[in-house]
Specification:
- Helix 4 runs antiparallel to helix 5.
- By secondary structure, the protein is α+β, with helices and mostly antiparallel strands.
Length: 243
């Protein structure tokens, strides 16, 4: 009986620790987990099973975020907390101007700490792929928006966009002037199509929710990426075409 009680208490402690880290309640600097490093983490030889937990645990950790989100990996400025009466806004937000040398839209955009972190690591892989396929770097990330106080389409639940915790990526511009858009470049056997399928595949590692053309009809022209608390499965749609 005592053994079962101790086992139950141990399991409860582990579950509580996991949840507090997952929700960002406990800052990562108060844990034995190593901090995310934008230079080394995305270039690791293996995927850390605690990667998402490490990103999520930065949610309220402004100190660690400021130390992590630095040039040349990302050009971002910490913002003051901005929480509205209706619940929209951000607690640990950043005005992000460029990521991995690629401008974020025309004027930058507001992203939560964990989204800015995930975007930076994601872009590390995309830059390498762009150089391999097109012999050119990505200089601009096109998107349909980040912060937007609204509900999920067709639902009463708040969207992660309401907390600057989501982005809708529609494509990229390369240094050679080439445009790579998701719309019309998914099922084809072209370099652009392969690149966009690769981009979706890599998003599965760094974001909690990743929706694209293989998910539903609403995401034929953009990837919806966010770091909300409830993860989504990555679609296996890309495996039929390869990248």
């Amino acid at each position: 009986m005592l053994k079962l009680t101790l086992t139950a208490l141990g399991a409860a402690l582990i579950a509580t620790t996991f949840v507090t880290l997952w929700l960002g309640i406990v800052p990562i600097r108060f844990t034995p987990l190593p901090h995310v490093n934008l230079k080394t983490t995305p270039n690791a030889l293996w995927i850390d099973p605690f990667e998402q937990i490490r990103i999520s645990s930065m949610r309220l950790d402004r100190k660690t975020c400021k130390e992590t989100l630095i040039k040349p990996y990302i050009n971002a400025r910490a913002l003051k907390p901005n929480v509205r009466k209706n619940g929209c806004g951000w607690v640990n937000g950043f005005q992000v101007y460029s990521i991995g040398g690629a401008k974020l839209g025309n004027k930058g955009a507001v992203l939560s700490c964990e989204m800015a972190t995930s975007m930076s690591m994601w872009m590390t892989h995309l830059q390498k792929k762009a150089k391999k396929l097109f012999k050119s770097r990505i200089v601009k990330i096109h998107h349909f928006g980040t912060y937007n106080c609204r509900t999920i389409r067709g639902s009463w639940l708040p969207s992660q966009h309401s907390f600057a915790n989501g982005i809708d990526v529609s494509g990229f511009t390369l240094a050679n002037g080439k445009m790579i858009r998701l719309y019309g470049n998914w099922k084809k056997n072209t370099k652009k199509a392969k690149f966009m399928r690769y981009a979706y595949s890599k998003s599965c590692t760094y974001f909690m929710v990743k929706l694209g053309p293989g998910s539903d009809k609403s995401h034929q022209d953009h990837f919806h990426l966010d770091n909300g608390p409830i993860p989504s499965w990555c679609s296996t749609y890309t495996s039929s075409f390869g990248y």
